[in-house]
Amino acid sequence: VRDETFRRGFQLGGGMKIGVMKTDDARRYGWVRILKSADLYRSLYDRKTMQTGTPRGFNLFSNNGRFVGEQKVLVPSKYNNRLFAELAALKFNIEASNRGITPAGLGEIVYDEGLNPLSGMAIKDIAKRADTLMTYWYDRSPDEYMNLDTTVRKINHAFSGSIDTASYFSLLALKGVRTVSEISFLRLPADITPIIEQKKHVLEQNGEMPGSYVLYQNYPNPFNPVTTIEFALPHQSEVTLTLFDVLGREVATLVDKEILEEGIQYVDFYADGLPSGVYFYKIVAKQVSEEGETGELFIDTKKMMYVR
Question: CB-based contacts of 87: which residues, under 8 Å, 6+ apart?
Answer without folding.
Answer: 18, 127, 130, 134, 152
